[in-house]
Design brief:
The chain is an all-alpha fold. About 85% of the residues lie in helices and about 0% in strands. The chain is elongated.
Length: about 130
């Protein structure tokens, strides 16, 4: 009787599958640890307990955590992504408002309104900013 182990290609194939599964599990463990420490509503003792469970019973601990907190993990991911997007948008707004042609034209307009420069100087600054 021929077994799958008799074929070298199948040995390589199964080794690749096992290695892929191991890498996926390692990524999942890091994801669980990141989520444990990201939770703000949990106490330090709860976080320590989850860490001990995941370290002492790795496969079972990760599965229990996913079953108990899987839905909340996704909600925290969405909240973190929204916060990061809002922070990025605010940074872009502040940088865009303080530089570029629009900012130069705005400064020239304020100078014109204050009477510091006349209309021709304003037009020259505006043309220079748009060039």
């Amino acid at each position: 009787m021929l077994l799958a182990a008799d074929y070298p290609f199948l040995n390589i194939f199964w080794t690749m599958i096992i290695f892929f599964a191991w890498v996926c599990w390692i990524m999942l463990v890091f994801r669980v640890f990141a989520d444990v420490f990201r939770r703000r509503e949990s106490s330090g003792w709860t976080k320590a307990a989850w860490c001990v469970i995941v370290i002492v019973l790795p496969f079972l601990g990760v599965l229990i955590y996913l079953i108990a907190n899987g839905r909340h993990m996704a909600e925290r991911d969405v909240q973190q992504a929204q916060a990061a997007q809002a922070q990025f948008d605010e940074r872009v707004r502040t940088v865009a408002a303080s530089s570029g042609p629009a900012a130069e034209i705005d400064k020239a307009k304020r100078l014109l309104d204050n009477g510091t420069i006349n209309e021709t100087e304003y037009d020259a600054l505006k043309t220079k900013a748009l060039a």
